[in-house]
Write a structure and sequence with these properties.
Layout lengths: L2 H16 L3 E7 L5 H11 L5 E5 L14 H5 L7 E5 L2 H10 L10 H17 L3 E8 L2 H12 L5 H13 L2 H9 L7 E5 L3 H25 L29 H25 L3 E7 L5 H9 L7 E5 L5 H4 L5 H4 L8 E5 L8 H4 L5 H20 L3 E8 L2 H13 L9 H8 L1 H15 L6 E5 L3 H22 L1
Parallel strand pairs: 1-3, 1-4, 2-3, 4-5, 6-8, 6-9, 7-8, 9-10
Length: 472
C-alpha cells in the first residue's frame, strides 16, 4: 500500500469511530476509467462498513417511487461509507433523455431542486458528501472502447458504452452540474495515467476527511432548548366542540356511503398510478387509530399499507430521521396510512428534549422539501390533525383504564404527556404554521365527537382525490 492508501484507510476508520456517515459519488462519461478508480477506492476502505452502490438506469420498479427513493433507501448509517458508482445525476440525465415519463411527472427543474434539497438535508444533518467527476479526453475513451471491441469476451462492454453515447451527450449534460454552486462541490479527477488518477482521488478525499475531522474536534455541543412560551395561548385550537357533532343514525348512513366511494377512489388511484399518502397527527386519545380504521375498512388490502409509527429502533436512530419514512412511501397507485409520522421531530422530539433547537427548527424546511419531492412524483398528500380539549382527553383516558378490553391503550407515558399539554399544543401549532403548504396542507379537525371527525376526514379525502383525478 502507498502512503496515501494508508492515510485514507486511517482517516476512514476515524470517521467510522466518530459516527460520520460518508457518501462518495463517482461520475464520469462512458469508458472514462471511473470503474478502475472506484475499485481502487473500494479496495482501500474497510469492507465491514463500506457499501458499493452501482446505480443502473432506472427500471420499471424504480419509476413507481419518488425520484430519490432508492438513494434514501440505501442511505448509510452513522459511521458507514457508501460509494455511489453513478448517482442521482446520471439518473436525472437518463430520465430526461430516455423519456421515462410514463409513471411519474418529470418536470426537470423540480427534480433538480429535489437533488439540491436532498444534499442540503443530508449535509445539515452530519453527512459528508464527496463528489468526484472522472474526466478523460475523447481520444483516450475511444482507444479504451476499441481495445474492448478487440476482445470477444469484453466486446459486449464496448457495445454498452456505445449505446449510452448514442442516447445522450453525458458530458454536456454533466457540465451544467459541475459548474453549479451546491453545498457539496465537485472535484474533477483527470484520468490520463491510472496510478496518478488514483493518487489524485485519494488526495481529494483525504483533504475533505481531515477538514471534517478538524471540524468535529472543535464542534460545540448545542444545549437542548424547546423554545417554549411561558404562558402559551392557542389561536388555532379554539373550537366550539359542542357544535361539531353528528347523531348516530346520520353517521351510520353517511359512513357507509363514504366508504363505498372510498373503495372506488382506491381503484381509480390504482388505474391512474397516483400514490396517496394520509398522515394523522393529534393529541393522545384523539381517535387517530379509529379514524384510520373506518377509512381502511372498505379498501382492498393489497393496495395499501398501514404504518403505526412508534419510537425509532436502534438501527433507525443510526440513520437520518426521514430514512425510515422514505422506506414506507407507497409506489404509484397505492395508499399509505401514517398513524403518527415524520412530524415526531418537531413534536415529541422537541417537547421531550430529544432534538436540539437547530435540529427541530431546520426540520420544518427538511419536511417541506420531503413532501415537495413526494408531490413532484405525483403523490397526493393529505395531513390531518385531530384536536380535542383537555377535559375530553381525561374522560377518554379514564374510560380506557376502566374498560378491560381497552386498558392496553393507556400507558404511563400517556399520563406524562398530558402533564405537558401546553407544550404539545404550542409545538403542534408551530408545526402547522410552518408546514402547511399548497401541495401538502394541514386539515385540523375537532375530534371531541369521534363520529364527526371520521366523517369529516373521509369527506376531505374523497373531495381532494376527486379533484386530483378529474385533472389527471
Amino acid at each position: 500500500m502507498t502512503n496515501l492508501e494508508d492515510k485514507l484507510a486511517e482517516l476512514s476508520r476515524e470517521t467510522h469511530t466518530q459516527g460520520i456517515p460518508l457518501m462518495i459519488v463517482i461520475e464520469g462519461a462512458p469508458a472514462s476509467g471511473k470503474s478502475r478508480l472506484a475499485n481502487a477506492l473500494y479496495m482501500t476502505l474497510d469492507a465491514k462498513y463500506t457499501n458499493f452502490i452501482a446505480n443502473r438506469p432506472p427500471r420499471e420498479s424504480y419509476l413507481r417511487y419518488p425520484f430519490l427513493h432508492r438513494y434514501w433507501y440505501h442511505l448509510p448509517k452513522s459511521g458507514d461509507i457508501n460509494i455511489h458508482f453513478r448517482s442521482w445525476y446520471s439518473q436525472l440525465i437518463e430520465q430526461k433523455d430516455y423519456h421515462h415519463t410514463h409513471n411519474l411527472r418529470t418536470d426537470l427543474p423540480e427534480l433538480e431542486a429535489d437533488i439540491d434539497n436532498f444534499e442540503n438535508t443530508l449535509v445539515n444533518n452530519g453527512y459528508e458528501i464527496i463528489k468526484l467527476y472522472i474526466d478523460t479526453d475523447e481520444k483516450a475513451r475511444e482507444h479504451h472502447i476499441d481495445k474492448l471491441k478487440s476482445n470477444p469476451i469484453l466486446r459486449w462492454k464496448a457495445e454498452e458504452f456505445q449505446e449510452q453515447l448514442i442516447h445522450h451527450d453525458y458530458e454536456k449534460e454533466m457540465s451544467y452540474f459541475l459548474n453549479k454552486k451546491t453545498v457539496s462541490p465537485w472535484s474533477i479527477i483527470h484520468f490520463h495515467k491510472k496510478s496518478q488518477a488514483i493518487d489524485d482521488m485519494y488526495k481529494v478525499i483525504i483533504q475533505r476527511l481531515q477538514k471534517r475531522l478538524e471540524y468535529e474536534k472543535d464542534k460545540q455541543t448545542e444545549r437542548i432548548n424547546g423554545d417554549f412560551s411561558n404562558n402559551f395561548k392557542t389561536k388555532l385550537f379554539n373550537f366550539d366542540f359542542a357544535n361539531e357533532k353528528i347523531d348516530k343514525q346520520d353517521y351510520k348512513e353517511r359512513l357507509l356511503e363514504l366508504q363505498e366511494r372510498m373503495r372506488e377512489i382506491q381503484f381509480q388511484l390504482y388505474q391512474e398510478k397516483v400514490p396517496l399518502i394520509l398522515v394523522y397527527e393529534g393529541m393522545d386519545a384523539a381517535g387517530k387509530g379509529g379514524n384510520i380504521k373506518r377509512t381502511r375498512k372498505p379498501l382492498d388490502p393489497t393496495g395499501y399499507t398501514n404504518n403505526a409509527i412508534s419510537a425509532p429502533t436502534d438501527i433507525e436512530l443510526q440513520h437520518h430521521y426521514l430514512w425510515r419514512f422514505h422506506k414506507r412511501i407507497p409506489r404509484t397507485g397505492h395508499i399509505a396510512f401514517f398513524d403518527r409520522s415524520w412530524y415526531g421531530r418537531v413534536l415529541v422530539e422537541r417537547v421531550e428534549g430529544l432534538a436540539n433547537r437547530t435540529e427541530w427548527q431546520q426540520a420544518y424546511k427538511e419536511i417541506n422539501d420531503f413532501e415537495q419531492s413526494l408531490h413532484n412524483s405525483r403523490a397526493i398528500i393529505i395531513k390531518f390533525f385531530l384536536s380535542l380539549d383537555k377535559n375530553e382527553q381525561l374522560k377518554r383516558f379514564k374510560q380506557r383504564q376502566e374498560t378491560p378490553e381497552k386498558e392496553w391503550k393507556i400507558t404511563a407515558e400517556d399520563w406524562r404527556n398530558r402533564e405537558k399539554w401546553d407544550l404539545y399544543l404550542e409545538a403542534s401549532e408551530d408545526m402547522i404554521e410552518h408546514t402547511s403548504t399548497l401541495f401538502a396542507p394541514w386539515y385540523v379537525i375537532p375530534a371531541n365527537d369521534k363520529r364527526y371527525a371520521r366523517i369529516t376526514a373521509l369527506e376531505t379525502i374523497i373531495k381532494i382525490c376527486e379533484v386530483h383525478l378529474n385533472g389527471v
